[in-house]
Amino acid sequence: MKILSTGSAVPERIVVNQELSEFLDTSDQWIRERTGIEQRRIHEGNLEILAARAAQNALEAGGVSADQLDLILCSNVHSRYLTPSMSSVVQGLIGASCPCLDINGACAGFVYALEIAAAHVHSGRYRRVLVLCAEEPTRMVDWHDRSTCVLFGDAAAAAVVIPDGEMPLFKMGTVSNGQAIYAYHGPGNCPYEKSDRRETPLVMKGQEVYKFAVQSSQEDIQYLCRQAGIGLEQVDFFLLHQANARIVEAVRSHLRQPPEKFPSNIRLYGNTSSAGLPLLLDEVNRQGKLQPGAVLVLSAFGAGLTTGACLMKW
Ligand code: UT7
Predict the structure, then answer these.
(1) What is the DSSP string of 64-109?
(2) Average pLDDT over residues 281-305
(3) N or C: which terminus of the chain has fewer CB atoms within 10 Å of its end residue's CB?
């Protein structure tokens, strides 16, 4: 499996920390020091438009036309649609005609989708798979809750996967925990509903998730390097889910690797859920930092609690 190309799209609207402190009991200093976030992008329209732009950018970068796609896999937690899937809406917007499937792996969704794409191209079933992540966590949080709303931003990013090169190594995991990060749908108006369920915006036990993230990420990275028979020093870049700059720094310092191997853009976008990893990958790719044969380790973690890590050669 090889990532042929990447692409991304972020909303135009920039919201800096200072703006949030105008209606929330928070400060630029707290947000910067505790998370590394300085601003985030918040889309003002429909997510599928952003998603289609990211998809088109990835296709253009790879010289692939939409009608050549065999499958669109979209990682998405929340959009205005309960159904149809985001991937099928985007398919129509970009003019593709292939099968479409959404997955919800929360913030680890890119790695989950990549693993499915890898299995499909490896099996010979599909030759060109678009892995797309489109997320709008800003529509899930309670904007009165300073402990969550300051953390998130919206984005979409994509990668075109083709059968070529070596099979990456994956380490996927889920530890069921419905209390650490969750949001509930509303009950609808079913006359047979007997539970007391009601719509609940995103709730996150920050410190519990923080500890889980640091622990699982460093273990996954070490596991994959052992499986590949390489030392950490042979990895060119570690791309971690951009949830908190302190999480990235804790993993980096535990692994005793230099900061330049841990690119980060959380400062500009905040936590964009599963879109964060492909957004970072696209940034590093467009900066020309990924030489053919470069060894990358991706690691993500999120609601579920899910984890996904991948070691690949570029
Ligand atoms: O993407 C999915 C995975 N998610 C993650 O990986 C997130 C993991 N968790 C984290 O990144 C961090 O736990 C947070 C950024 C969410 C919170 O940072 P923290 O250092 O764990 O802070 P805390 O929750 O312990 O809160 C410390 C203090 C509290 O005040 P008291 O009780 O000490 O008086 C909070 O009420 O900071 C307060 N606080 C705030 N103050 C100003 C919480 N949010 C804010 C805020 N502005 N926005």
Answers:
(1) --GGG-SEEEEE-S--S-SSS-HHHHHHHHHT--S-EEEE--GGGH
(2) 97
(3) C
Contact between 135 and 155 under an 8 Å Cβ cutoff? The reply is: yes
Ligand 1 pocket by Cβ (under 6 Å)? 26, 30-31, 34-35, 107, 146-147, 150, 206-207, 209-210, 213, 243-244, 247, 271, 301-302
Same domain, yes or no: 86 and 175: no
CA distances from 272 to 179, 206, 297 (A): 21, 16, 19
Q: Are both 140 and 17 inside the same structural domain?
A: yes
Average pLDDT of the residues in 122-130: 96
Task: Summarize pLDDT for 18-35 with one digit per residue, the tens.
Answer: 999 999 999 999 999 999
Among 146, 162, 178, the domain boundary falls at: 162
**Which residue's alpha carbon is nearest to atom 20 within ligand 1?**
34
Instruction: Give yes or no: residues 86 and 217 share one domain.
Output: no
CA of 146 to the centre of ligand 1 (A): 9
Average pLDDT score over residue span 175-183: 97
- Average pLDDT rounded to a whole number, residues 200-228: 98
Q: Give the domain extent around 180.
A: 169-313
Which of 114, 130, 162 corresponds to the end of one domain? 162
Is 241 catalytic? The answer is yes
- Report the number of secondary-structure helices (H) and strands (E) in the chain: 10, 13
- Cα–ligand 1 centroid distance for 34 (angstroms): 7
* Closest Cα to atom 8 of ligand 1: 210
**Residue 35 φ then ψ, to 5°:** -135, -20
Which residue's CA is the nearest one to ligand 1's atom 30?
147
* pLDDT of 299: 98
| CATH code of the domain in which 156 resides | 3.40.47.10
Per-residue confidence at 195, pLDDT binned at 50, 70, 90? confident
- Same domain for 247 and 288: yes
Do residues 48 and 79 make contact, with C-beta atoms less than 8 angstroms apart?
A: yes
